[in-house]
Design goal:
3-stranded mixed beta sheet; two-stranded antiparallel sheet; globular; alpha+beta; 165 residues
Length: 165
């Protein structure tokens, strides 16, 4: 009887003939939907380089950063945990003194206007969306604001945050 019990346990422990398999690639990791709400988010380029990923920026409860300060942090690129998990940026680095040339206008019916000190016409979709999503979620606490991006070369039409670009 004891022998039969040991044999039964041994069969259970061997996996009953289930063969090992390698890692199965199932696509991108899970995504999160962030639309306004509490806190501040910087949008960086995901490790795969094909979409945006929100990176929370924590402050005291209920405190939100000025959108121009958020822009400065965005242009500095991912740091800390965001850099450790492989987030990158598609935005150009600002030269010394260019931070003073950035501005974010109050939200109007047309949206929020963001002025930056470099040409915006040649920015990639991901670079544009980094700015649009970071500022679009920062200016309204209960939704998204369209963002109008303005550079010395041109003014782009208002865009809504589309994190899939």
């Amino acid at each position: 009887m004891a022998t039969a019990t040991l044999v039964g346990c041994a069969l259970l422990l061997t996996g009953c003939g289930i063969k090992r398999s390698g890692v199965i690639d199932s696509g991108h990791s899970a995504t999160v939907k962030v639309s306004g709400g509490k806190g501040n988010f910087l949008y960086f380029v995901a490790k795969d380089g094909d979409r945006l990923a929100p990176s929370p920026f924590s402050l005291a409860e209920g405190y939100r950063l000025n959108p121009v300060v958020l822009l400065g942090l965005l242009f500095d690129g991912p740091r800390g945990r965001a850099a450790e998990v492989g987030l990158t940026t598609a935005l150009p680095r600002l030269s010394a003194g260019q931070e003073d040339q950035m501005a974010v206008s109050p939200t109007s019916q047309a949206g929020t206007t963001v002025r930056v000190p470099f040409a915006v016409g040649d920015l990639s979709d991901l670079a544009r969306m980094q700015i649009v999503c970071t500022i679009g979620t920062a200016v309204l606490t209960d939704g998204l604001s369209p963002v109008i991006l303005m550079g010395p070369d041109t003014t782009l039409p208002a865009a809504d945050c589309d994190r899939k670009r």
